[in-house]
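Appendix B.2, paired examples.
Example (i):
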Amino acid sequence: MPTETTTPTETTTLTSTDPRTGARVPTDLTATTAEQADVVVRAADAAFAAASSHDRLWRAGLLDALADALDAHRDELVAAADRETGLGTTRLEGEVGRSSFQFRLFAEAVREGGYLEATIDRGGPTPLGPAPEIRRMLVPVGTVAVFGSSNFPFAFSVAGGDTASALAGGNAVVLKAHSSHLETSARSYAALAEAAAAYGAPDGLIGIVYGTEAGRVLVAHPLIQAVGFTGSLNGGRALMDVIDQRPRPIPFYGELSSLNPLVITPGAAAVRGEAIADGLYGSFTLGSGQFCTKPGLAFVPTGADGDAVVARIAAKAGEAGASVLLNGRIATSFDEIRDRLIATGSVEVLAQGVADAGAGFTAAPTVLSTTADTLTADVAEEAFGPLLVIVRYDDDAQVVRALDVVPDSLTATVHSEASETDAVAALVREFAPRVGRIVFDGYPTGLRVSWAQHHGGPWPATNSQHSSVGVSAVRRFLRPLAYQDAPEVLLPPELRDDHTDIPRRIDGRLQLG
């Protein structure tokens, strides 16, 4: 992570950069000092206590109000994000829609109530003798720090899923704005804060800080109870190091690094190789390859059918021009990793698109090739940008052996035909312990936001078993609390006998309310 330093009396004016040109524009934002961050966190913690007096339906209404605010401010948000990210208005308009949808989805989940996991075991005789009554449900953890990501200025940033899920759980949120889109973050925060105030939420329930040092202060603050982070592996490690030094460590939920292997079977290459080549090219270049779910490694069978797939991908990449990257750090890292992979001598450069000599941050699509028998960990490295490594294989056994050098990922994808079910079943058994989502005959980019979605995976994809997308993402910011033989008047409403409007498990039987 880049280093930014401030002293208690020093203010650092922050600049916004247009990635299309590299031009830096001063903003009216300044880096948050440690003292200012402390004020923001303490305000959030006080707001959390005040908001705790409201019920679930109030909280669901708040989430709907925040969604409405994003829709109402869509035009100005998109304009700011386009200036700061170069992602284009079409993509960004869709992303604002995704963000408002997330807030509404969590509002629906809060009203439904199943996320609370309300469970009641009545007291009385049991096979083990007399037993007390136990009632348990999930409760909010407190004030949560959320770090915005660079590649999704709305859906994984200030107005993103971490914010929505933390608020849905009943927590307060303090946001760390990403340096790649400071004005977008400030405008998003203003829209949310204004809507929250109009709804009647306590002041400070949503807060924000700016600057790298403020992020460190945030995760070290004793009132922060959990952290949501989407970013680089190195950035995540730096924050985890800070948390490890706390007298009372807290959960850190990081989405960090993912290569997302994709396998094309011989049958799929023969029957629909052209369509797969086009789809794969579109997936690894989508958003200039800056998706955490980008397929960075593709296993393609040897032989004429596989050759045709590879040739088509390479031809499309070779004819393509450079596309805009989000910031200079990503551009520099992409160039370094691409050159490092080539320098290993174990890959062949099949295609490189037309470079852009302009002043902005760009990268041309690059396609490299190696074989399953020669694939090494040095080559199986995530390059955040439009780069694909094609791995040629003779049989499934080679794929299985090669997977041992591929880091665990968010996703794995298989393209196959119905006649190859047994072989695909074997691949699925290999993928299951290595990833969080297996995609069949599709592409991992374009992540659905839904009740069943899981966006996570084993290390280094993430450092937890939880999802950062979909309704189950709220589970990160909740903790179990059990009540033994408690007077009913002291129980949360959802655990009282007369509360029957949510799913509850009573004496082992699920009751849907």
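Example (ii):
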Amino acid sequence: MDRNDAGSAPKTEARAEVRAPVPGTQTAAKESMHLGDRCIVDAGKPSVAASAASARAIARDPVGSLCALGIAAQRAQRHQLALALIERAIVLDPGRAQPHFVLGRVLHQVGRLANATARYARAIELEPTHAEAHMNLGIVLEQQGRLDAATVAFQLALRLRPDDAEALHNLAVVHFARGDSARALGAARRALEIKETPATRSLFARSIRDLASAPLMQELRGFVTRAIAEAWDRPRIIAPGATTIIKQDARLAPLIARAVAAWPARLPFDELLAAAGLAAISADTLLVALLESTHVCDRELERFLTVVRCALLAAAEDRHTSPDLEQAGALRFCCALAAQCWINEYVFDVTDDESARVAALAERVASALRAGEAVAMLPLVLVASYRPLHSVITPEMLDRPWPEPVAGIVRQQVHEPLEERRLAASLPRLTEIDDEVSRRVREQYEQNPYPRWVKLEPPREPTTLEHWLRQTLPSATFAPLSARNGIDILVAGCGSGQNPITAARMLAGARVLAVDLSLASLAHAQRKTRELAIDTIDYAQADILKIGSIGRQFDFVDTTGVLHHLGDWQAGWRALLEVMRPGGVMRLGLYNERASASVVAARAFIAARQYGSTPQEIRRCRQDLLAAGDPLLAHVAEYQDFFSTSECRDLLFHVQEHRLMLPQIKAFLTAHDLRFLGFVVDRAVIARYRQRFPEDPAATDLNRWDRFEAEHPAMFGRMYQFWVQKAGPGTSR
């Protein structure tokens, strides 16, 4: 399962967050806090003591100045002083709205949501036109799962400020949490038209994800093309929405239907494409952006592309047709198709006839390259859509010039694999790997580095671990995290690097050690990290079972989608706890039994028919699963992992897999004195849980969650994702 996407759940899973009411540490110096008479600006100075200028300000406006000092104290992590200063301001002028609003902000930041709600409401009672109070009231209500009340609060804020992009963003978040993707998309689009921000771009990307249809869907093409090409969020999040638009396109829909109706037959070029069809797909910038960014996760579109590839193969074999197609603009699309096949690790179905023809075409291209002759680009690119170019182009052939966009394919399929092989040879080994299961798991990921990816979401303003955790789990009760300069992070089972890169870019002062069993996966991670110019991550090979031998301690351990692949998942968890500092936090992702029925059935199907785990066998098995006529088996195609070779192997062919139930997790937490902080799930799930169990507003009672999951077995996807805190000063379970 995808360790780098916090678990590849079925396509319905996605989350979005309201804009935080309290800025991160890096933005404090430049954020206007609108205090008192809304002209006092918090300078973000590290000292709480009043300067001479502060003394004059206090004389002019003691209430506003006390609020400003309270916020400065809060940013210095002096929570009690902050509360005392602001409460003093309220005593001086209890009828003024702003001190109540500021106290609400402070309470909000430390997670006292009910108290913050009351203070925001009091500020609004005193000053009904206080737009910021309406805004923050909406945020705190949303974080408590009170979605209807949050909607009203944001609508009132918008009535006061109709063109407030942030209020529109937050309203879109509430619609999204309620499962109303169409309204979320409409509000996010309006916010983007007023002011584009990374958060709103990401929200738009997530809102489009599950939308099967919507008014003006095709009018969103421009936004969606930008979203996937510019990676407004991880491309695989945007891919389902992009796929919907592509399949509904008036020019492409008939072509897709024709190919799907004929499946598994391969339609000839003239019957499938002809001139108009090829022009349509070559000119579709959204399709090209999708193919170049992430693997296609749709059965019909996969079949269409498989048939198109075969039709283009015939054209590439024809020495007369090939140059004409290059001149007609087909080369750009063919390069995008080759990029897609590289990204999905050649998971598309291949007939025996195609294999033989590709082998002959590859030899023709290789012979020309060895002889130093001119090579037609279309045959080269078609070979690259069936097999990696490094099997055709050897290092000594790399000196010749390659025109764009072919140069990009050569770089992706030849240069980058060579670089990764060099990096793998230089990576440090921190522990021995002598556990038999660990050895078998390592072998799997050396053969199939996991997962292959192209783009990540853009970086955002760095924040603290505590602030990130507060945003992720607004109702969580946890002891204050380390106040030391910097934060030591262990990503245990880092795969190909998405999680450590995200942590390094998001958390201020992050020092990241990322370990994995697979040198091939680590090399991919190292290359992508260098590509992004990140220098705060160290990669190394290590077995989690022996991680204690490295002699280091960490504030935050991230192990998502990993422990269930160990021979003894509890031993691995204990080993990670040993390297956590007291009071440290851990994010985990563990397979759950209840939502795994289709995977269990598919694994039984595979065992009964004795499929191997080679790429050829995985391709054959995928087609057989879809053709079996069993809805339970076909359900595995609802997992995005099904649509690439390494991820499909991880999903259905893994050499070691545990699936857990919540009572097992609770027993481990109790035995090791760990505080359960909460699940990472959609806010709508949390809201439904609180309606079912109002006696557990923190949503941390695992006995009740077990009962709730029994009633809704698919709500977690295939993986429990949650946070825990280790016992330490100020912690208690």
